[in-house]
Structures are given as C-alpha cells and as structure tokens.
Design a protein that fits this description.
- The structure is a single chain.
- This protein is α+β, with helices and mostly antiparallel strands and 208 residues long.
- It folds into two domains: 89 residues, no CATH class; 104 residues, no CATH class.
- 52% of the residues lie in helices and 16% in strands.
- Strands 1-2-3-4 form a four-stranded antiparallel β-sheet.
- A hairpin with a 3-residue loop joins strand 2 and strand 3.
- The longest helix has 29 residues.
- The radius of gyration is 26 Å and the shape is elongated.
- The protein starts with a helix and ends with a helix.
C-alpha cells in the first residue's frame, strides 16, 4: 500500500469530515478496493491531514464493507479509531494491562471503575477548556490532577508540622502527628514507586 499511496497525487484525495467527540475536522481521504491477505476483498482507506502530506503522516484502514461510499468508510474508521484510542488510554494512563481478573463480576467492576475514571478526566478536560479555552489530552488532565493533589498534600504536611509537643495536654496531638507523618512518608514512597494517579484524597480522613 505504501507503493500505491506514493503514486497518488493531491488530486486523488477528497476532503471529508472526520467526526470526533469534540468537534469535526477535515481530512483528505482516498479509497481503493483491493485484496488484503487474511481478509479477502476490502476497501482500503488512506487518510492524510493534507493532500500533499508525506506518507509518514498517512493512516490506513481496511474494511470488508465493499458497498459503502467514501463518507461512510471514513465514519466507520473514525468510530473504530475512537475505540482504539480509548483502549490505549486505559492501558497507558489507567494501567488496565496490569490487572488480571477471572470472574465476570470482577470484570464488570473493573470496567465500571475505569469508565468512571475516564468520565472524571473528561470532565476535567471540559472544565479546563471552558475556563481557559485550551484543550487537554487525557494524559494532561491526569497530570493536572496529580499536581493539584501534590500541592494540597504538601501544604497540609507543612501546616500539620507546626504542632508542638511543649505541654502534656498536647501528647495525643503529638502521637497523632507522628503516626500521620509516618503514614504520609509511606504514601509518598508508594506513590513514587507505582506512579499512581491520585496520591491522597483527604489526609485528615485517612488519619482518622
């Protein structure tokens, strides 16, 4: 297909709408019917961001629906690409490839949590875009949340360390401070080792 695509000119590509969840963008597409090993007769879609873009920017999709027109082929490819990106985000950002489940209930619970987390990060992205007019990726949204939690945790540690043990009446406070400080140090070490998404929801609740 690279040889075939290399022989195409800019006039062989048609501008079409590539639908996404956020907006609609224009791409340049070309469809050819050919035989694909392992699939049989297919429509192969070649997509470029610009009709004169280099082959390194081209993407290819194969589809067995031979009667679909160009716009339908592009629509199916866009839907499939959305799914692929979702699964890649689950693996790279949420660590889904580190979990092993054997029961149907465990699988349902896991995917429910993953989708809730995905929805939360999507809400963070939407809020950021509404306030600042800038679109974030899911990875950038995750990093923003992590940095915010780090700042709150460190601020809380700084304020908590101001307690003194000068009087007998403050003994219980000192014991609590030592216990919580030990817990936080362990939490920070665990966070650095595992690169977790959220480091601490509420230290005061954890202490209690």
């Amino acid at each position: 297909m690279d040889e075939y695509a290399a022989g195409l000119s800019g006039d062989d590509f048609t501008p079409v709408i590539w639908p996404t969840q956020e907006d609609e963008k224009v791409v340049y597409a070309h469809v050819v019917t050919t035989w694909v090993r392992g699939l049989g007769p297919c429509q192969v879609l070649i997509v470029k961001p610009d009709p004169d873009a280099d082959l390194e920017h081209a993407r290819y999709w194969a589809m067995t629906r031979l009667d679909d027109i160009l716009e339908q082929v592009v629509g199916h490819a866009a839907q499939r690409w959305t799914i692929e990106v979702l699964l890649a985000d689950f693996k790279e950002l949420m660590g889904s490839d580190h979990y092993q489940m054997r029961s149907a209930r465990g699988i349902v619970r896991f995917w429910a949590l993953e989708l809730c987390l995905y929805q939360f990060l999507d809400e963070v992205r939407a809020t950021h875009h509404r306030i600042w007019g800038e679109r974030l990726t899911l990875g950038q949204a995750r990093q923003q949340i992590r940095e915010s939690h780090w700042e709150r945790l460190l601020d809380w540690r700084a304020s908590f360390s101001r307690f003194t043990c000068a009087t007998p009446s403050s003994t219980s406070v000192c014991v609590l401070r030592r216990r919580v400080t030990s817990m936080l140090n362990a939490q920070l070490r665990w966070t650095r080792d595992t690169d977790s998404l959220f480091i601490c929801v509420n230290p005061c609740e954890s202490a209690s």
